[in-house]
Amino acid sequence: MADALFVVLRKVALSLGERTLERIGAEVVEAAPVLTDFEHSLKQIEDELLILQAFVGQVGPHKVGDKAFDAWLDQVRDVAHEVEDIIDEHAYLAAQAVDTGSFFKRKFRQIKNFVAWQKFTSQISQVEARIQRLGEMRNRYGISVGEIHRSNKLRHPNQLFMSESSYLTDNSEIVGHADEIERLTQWLLEEKQERTLIAIFGMGGLGKSTIASSAYKNQKISRTFDCHAWVTVSQTYQVEELLREIINQLIDQRASVAGGFMTMSRLRLVEVIQSYLRDKKYFIVLDDVWDRDAWLFLNYAFVRNNSGSKVLITTRRMDVSSLAVDKYVIELKTLPYAESWELFCKRAFYASKDNICPENLRSLAEKIVAKCQGLPLAIVTIGSTLSYREFEEQEWAFFYNQLSWQLANNPELSWISNVLNMSLNDLPSYLRICFLYCSLYPEDYRIRRKLISKLWIAEGLVEDREDGTTMEEVAKYYLTELTQRCLLRVTECNACGRPRTFVMHDLVREVTSVIAKKEKFGIAYRDAGITKVSHEARRLSIQKGAQSLNSLTSSRLRSFILFDPEVPSSWIYDVLSQFRLLRVLCLRFANIEQVPGMVTELYNLRYLDFSHTKVKHIPVSFKKLRNLQVLDLRFSYVEELPLEITTLINLRHLYVIVIHDLQQRSLDCFSAVKILGNICHLKNLQTLHIVSANKDLVSQLGNLTLMRSLAIMKVRQSCIAELWSSLTKMPNLSRLLISACDMDEVLDLRMLKPLPNLKFLWLSGKLAEGVLPLIFSKFEKLALLKMDWSGLKKDPIISFSHMLNLVDLRLYGTYGGEQLTFCAEWFPKLNSLQLADMEHLNWIDIEDGTMIGLYHLELIGLRNLKAVPVGIKYIRKLHQMFLTDMPNEFIQRLQGSDDDIVQHIPNVHIFDSSDSKAVNTFHFVPYLAKKYGPGATKYAPTYWGSSSI
């Protein structure tokens, strides 16, 4: 609840640990007394904020809906933000003090900023006074821990009402989930003597309680049990209350009172339930379970008496659902569109014959249903709200256009926000604040794991555990937690099976955006008729309509993320001058050709993204960005980095990629950037893409022992031994791209030692003697392998067959022979296969039982392959096949006599690579959609669509 406190306390700890005085030295010796007092006062403020954080954490969950507490908490956030501003301003001035400009420039700044140093004293005093007033206000308005009421019913009336509503739902009103209901019924009726724990798992609003209720009230099921009970656990359950409620339902309330159960301890209550259930076949539903601890006492109370008893749990959390044994878990998904439409019409048009939608409202009704994205709670609630409104197009259009406002302010729709908010409020601070950051993305945007992790780290939201675990790995754990709590949905995994992209349900995003704005965390601007953004906003993403903003003067911004590609560069240059405390600047797809001059004055900047822009030159003044952690220049026009880049010792990820061949069929499909200077100082570097090799650089690489992902091109035989030596000093290296300087240069891998954690390998260039080296037998963990122009003389497939984890195999001009053979049982996990530009290849033998999971197949430029490989018919899971620049005879046979070989493949695409429109359609557009979501192509500048790709 007090996420701002969480952030500022982390910053306070970092600030106190940086020893600013030692770092800036004698250059600002005049400010030394001020800085000493500052650090002393900051430590006192840290102590106060820690106590405030503990108090809010203890009281907050029991004050939901308490307006006095909410108003007080808002004041706490303001104080936390004020402290954060002071710390970041302090960091800004400290970085400016060690700016490596000219002597006179530094002296001028020191004189100019000395007044700013002095201001810290008065600012700190004001904060201390405000903290004192917060304590007084808390006492004045009776905001205290107090005694938490034993009954959750009194504290959470809405929550109880929602649960009871699901329980009271008529089975005839249920739409969808037929398979899940049937499976649940079978499990409850099966003749199994031992007690069975069953779980229904899914995000809030999917209908978990409704499905449980349908089974609970099913007469056929209830008659098979001697007794049954239904209890709602909730977020603030108390074990004693749960046990008493179960006793009340199993026995009866009068007997409960007479038996003195109201005053019994929890252990005695457990014994009572055990005694009653000892010889009975029981069915108990535990609705809305939020943590595994709730099961500890209940597990003992529900005796294992081998009578065929069943316990059914509904939960939003995967860890809770894992309590169910033998995989008795039903994971609910959102409804498909057809069932969503049926459910909506049942509610919105219940009074009309056959629940038919009036023709004049159909278009708007379809948009509303689409907005609900298959969430039954939203469909039912919105449909019911619209059912008694006039069936006028204008009124429905107004409702749809104001849906975000309606969700936040309309009491009739409070069910939706209440249910979704419960998941948000259940998050610990470190997860909640990270999830709020996700709400800055547009609707249906695919949130990339690597990108969001870097943004969280740049903002200081990720814990540095200092135990050898990188912050990127901690951020990955955070994403896993959010996924297991059903707040993010995985949309794609990489070749290793690790989640690559996530998406938020649109209504979850709407509700979370409202909270983020209310708590001054951040604003997602969507040109909704607003011309001014609050100066209190600390993060801002502009999704469209940036030019309509008349006022954008928030000097408090820490993140500025631009999604609108139509904004003129002049607007961008002007607006950046106002955000000097930025930590994150993302101008991906922005229409700019040069780095805005103000950028190099952003001393606190951690993350800088100019990818997919027309930026060509990185200025020497980048040396000022000493805190920079991420520099992303992918798909820009930058081909050389200045010497000063090597002074950015905090750099963790450096991406510089210029693409020339989107199909990646040439040796020089990418440009390799030249890095001048010595990279030995970049000891924090984990990612380096793509650099041009030289003798000095490859030897310096050995100093970058934290490297996880490296792409290096223009490699010559003269420096290959030094490169292999450097690679062996990178124990965590998992991704490697090596490309030779030209088609005639040989890559001699015989001296390469095993890289134990390598999962991604892309080799481009001739291999020594046209033979795969023995080192390939050590690459058992590889999930993706791409080999280009290797000049192999022997069928390499057998040499790859031991790679049981291989998911993606791409061979481009790899082999000079005539036949490739895929034997049975090879490549059990292979999902994608691409074979390209092997000019002599005329036969591909595919045995039955090989590549049993293959989903995607590409055959490209195999000019001598005239017959469709017969074995393709054995690859039964093959879903799509792309054929590019294939011989006419091959295509004719595919469409004629060999049609039966591919008739099981739903999608077969044939095109010519000389057709630039087809290249974009089949390569660039899917690339953008895969990375950023289905609507991402609208963010691409027009130059991507040119024939120059």
Automatic annotation (TrEMBL):
<dbReference type="InterPro" id="IPR058922">
    <property type="entry name" value="WHD_DRP"/>
</dbReference>
<dbReference type="Pfam" id="PF23598">
    <property type="entry name" value="LRR_14"/>
</dbReference>
<dbReference type="Pfam" id="PF00931">
    <property type="entry name" value="NB-ARC"/>
</dbReference>
<comment type="similarity">
    <text>Belongs to the disease resistance NB-LRR family.</text>
</comment>
<dbReference type="Pfam" id="PF18052">
    <property type="entry name" value="Rx_N"/>
</dbReference>
<dbReference type="InterPro" id="IPR041118">
    <property type="entry name" value="Rx_N"/>
</dbReference>
<dbReference type="GO" id="GO:0043531">
    <property type="term" value="F:ADP binding"/>
</dbReference>
<dbReference type="GO" id="GO:0002758">
    <property type="term" value="P:innate immune response-activating signaling pathway"/>
</dbReference>
<keyword id="KW-0611">Plant defense</keyword>
<dbReference type="GO" id="GO:0042742">
    <property type="term" value="P:defense response to bacterium"/>
</dbReference>
<dbReference type="Pfam" id="PF23559">
    <property type="entry name" value="WHD_DRP"/>
</dbReference>
<keyword id="KW-0175">Coiled coil</keyword>
<keyword id="KW-0433">Leucine-rich repeat</keyword>
<dbReference type="InterPro" id="IPR042197">
    <property type="entry name" value="Apaf_helical"/>
</dbReference>
<dbReference type="InterPro" id="IPR038005">
    <property type="entry name" value="RX-like_CC"/>
</dbReference>
<dbReference type="InterPro" id="IPR036388">
    <property type="entry name" value="WH-like_DNA-bd_sf"/>
</dbReference>
<dbReference type="InterPro" id="IPR055414">
    <property type="entry name" value="LRR_R13L4/SHOC2-like"/>
</dbReference>
<keyword id="KW-0547">Nucleotide-binding</keyword>
<dbReference type="InterPro" id="IPR044974">
    <property type="entry name" value="Disease_R_plants"/>
</dbReference>
<dbReference type="GO" id="GO:0009626">
    <property type="term" value="P:plant-type hypersensitive response"/>
</dbReference>
<dbReference type="InterPro" id="IPR032675">
    <property type="entry name" value="LRR_dom_sf"/>
</dbReference>
<feature type="domain" description="Disease resistance protein winged helix">
    <location>
        <begin position="440"/>
        <end position="510"/>
    </location>
</feature>
<dbReference type="InterPro" id="IPR002182">
    <property type="entry name" value="NB-ARC"/>
</dbReference>
<dbReference type="InterPro" id="IPR027417">
    <property type="entry name" value="P-loop_NTPase"/>
</dbReference>
<keyword id="KW-0677">Repeat</keyword>
<protein>
    <recommendedName>
        <fullName>NB-ARC domain-containing protein</fullName>
    </recommendedName>
</protein>
<feature type="domain" description="Disease resistance N-terminal">
    <location>
        <begin position="21"/>
        <end position="99"/>
    </location>
</feature>
<feature type="domain" description="Disease resistance R13L4/SHOC-2-like LRR">
    <location>
        <begin position="557"/>
        <end position="878"/>
    </location>
</feature>
<feature type="domain" description="NB-ARC">
    <location>
        <begin position="179"/>
        <end position="352"/>
    </location>
</feature>
